[in-house]
Structure formats: structure tokens, C-alpha cells
Amino acid sequence: SANRKFHPDDTVIDIGGHKIGGGYMQVIAGPCSVESEEQICEVAKAAQASGATMLRGGAFKPRTSPYAFQGLRAEGIELLLKAKALTGMPIVTEIMSGDQLPLFDEVDVIQVGARNMQNFELLKLLGKTNKPILLKRGLANTMEELLMSAEYIMAGGNMQVILCERGIRTFETATRNTLDISAIPMLKRLSHLPVVVDPSHAAGIPWMVEPLSLSAIAAGADGLIIEVHNNPSKALSDGPQSLRPAEFDAVMKKIGGMMGYM
Ligand code: PEP
Ligand code: MN
Fold first, then answer.
1. pLDDT for 223-251, tens place per residue?
2. N or C: which end of the chain has fewer CB within 10 A?
3. Where does the pLDDT of residue 262 fall: very low under 50, low under 70, confident under 90, or very high at 90 and above?
4. Cα separation of 103 and 83, whole Å?
5. With the C-alpha atoms ordered 37, 50, 52, 213, is the resulting torsion angle positive or negative?
6. Atom 3, ligand 1: residue with shortest CA distance
7. What's the mean pLDDT in 161-181?
8. How far is CA 82 from CA 65, 74, 118, 231, 241, in A?
9. Which tens digits make up the pLDDT trace of 28-67?
């Protein structure tokens, strides 16, 4: 169970030698979408040089419009595996339906996106795998609902669930979503699972990624997942919120500086 009552100690998940939870923090970085070998490899190398330990990149993309770029799909996963071979970074990528699972054999962490948080059949299937699952909070889901979705995965026998707060829908329009900072201490009190924060989708604007990242760490987050692109103005998805590698490097230096005081 995800409930701390039955599991008082923090869960620590090992992802290719990188531990997360129970005091271990990791930063996952990479583009919203995998677009080309050159793009994913360049971003991976730069993010790793700045201190990111895992690479993100969408191959199957849940887009609001069916006419928008839907991701490179199987080819996107192949390109992520090339970047993994190049850098040694474990890879994190989103699954959208169960029939895609065979393509995820060499993926290190399977992401369930906000829009699929309550796709219960998908959650049950992932509960039968032995892969860590990054479970993102739905756009309009409560913390209790997020924890129940984690429970669906764990009920199948897979205890390796990482919760992700990525901002929720509120009346506010100045930011893309509203980062629910209180979700971090609350989820960590109710559950023993690691909690990661996605400041990129929460803010929707690159300059706010830094303050939200620092706030998340101060509130007890076990990790961050940040969108980084080598050419944000040409990105096929989420360019407007993506950091350039140099901007990501500056955020990582601020994080390192802050953690020196903690
Ligand atoms: C993403 O990580 O690019 C993504 C689509 O996130 P979310 O599911 O949180 O909107
Ligand atoms: Mn995105």
C-alpha cells in the first residue's frame, strides 16, 4: 500500500544506480518531445553536464489537438535508447496505452501522464510490470485520488511508484497551472513514496522554473523533472516553457547552492 500507516519508512527507488526517496534527490531533465537523434543527444549531454541524472523525452505525446505533433512514437523510444547508450542516463518516457508496453522493455521509468492518471486499466497493467512508474497528478485530481491511482499500481505487486505534482487547474491564468506546493508535505505525510515536482508544466513559463524548483526542494520534494530544449523556439511541443541548456545550468547551480544550506 502507498499508505504510510502500513509502511512508516520512506520508499527508496533505485533507477540505474540513482536512488530517489528517503533523502536521495534526483533531477530528471530533457525535452518535452524527442524530435531527432541530434536533439535528444545534445540535450542529454548538456543536461548531464549540469547535474541531471536522468533523461526525459516524450515519444507518445498526449496533445490537446489531434492535429498537433503526436510524437515520434516507436522511433522516439529508439532515439532515447541511443541517448542512453551515449550518456548512461536512465530514460523516462510516457506510455499512453497498454498496447505500447512491449516498446518499453529498455525504458527505465515509465511515465503516466496527467491525462491518464485515472486510466485504471493502464494502471493495473503497469502494476504487473517491474518498472518504476512516474505517476503524474491529473489536472483536476485531488491528492487522495492520486494516492488511489498509486494504489492501483501497487495492488498489482509493483511497489516502485514515484508521485509527481505538476500543477493543477485553478481560476488563475497567469501561469499554465497552479503548482500545489502543499501537495509535497501532504503526500509525504500520507505516503512513503517519493514525490517529484514538475515546475515546467506547472509554470508554463521558463523564468519561473527556478523559483518553483527551489520552493519544491524547500518543501521536501525528492526530485524535479524539468523541460530542457536546445532550441525552444523551434520545439515541436512545450517550447514556450522549456529552458535552454545554459538556463538549466543556472537553475542547477542555484539548487546546488541552496542545498548547501539545508
Ligand atoms: C509531459 O511531461 O510532457 C506531459 C505531457 O506532462 P503532463 O502529463 O503532466 O501534462
Ligand atoms: Mn511537455
1. 999 999 999 999 999 999 999 999 999 99
2. C
3. confident
4. 16
5. negative
6. 32
7. 98
8. 29, 13, 31, 20, 25
9. 999 999 999 999 999 999 999 999 999 999 999 999 999 9
Q: Which residue has the cell 493495473?
A: 124
Whose Cα sits closest to atom 10 in ligand 1?
Answer: 114
Q: If pLDDT is split at 50, 70 and 90, which confidence band does 260 have?
A: confident
**Contact between residue 153 and residue 123 where contact means Cβ atoms under 8 Å apart:** yes
Cβ burial of 254 (10 Å; 0-12, 13-18, 19+) is middle
Residue type for 141, please? N
DSSP SS3 for 225: strand
- Average pLDDT, stretch 175-190? 98
pLDDT of res. 81: 98
Q: What is the DSSP string of 164-213?
A: EE--B--S--SSSSB--TTHHHHHHHHB-S-EEE-HHHHH-SGGGHHHHH
DSSP letters, 25-40, are -EEEEE-SB---HHHH
CATH code of the domain containing 220: 3.20.20.70
Answer yes or no: is the C-beta of 113 below 6 A from any ligand 1 atom: yes
Provide the phi-psi class of 130: left if phi over 0, else alpha when psi is between -120 and 50, else beta.
alpha
| CA separation for the pair 184, 198 (Å, rounded) | 12
77 CB within 6 A, ligand 1: no
pLDDT of residue 259: 86
Mean pLDDT of the residues in the chain:
98
> Which is the closest atom of ligand 1 to the Cα of 164?
9
Query: Range of 241's domain?
Result: 4-61+70-259
Q: What total of structural domains would you count in the chain?
A: 1
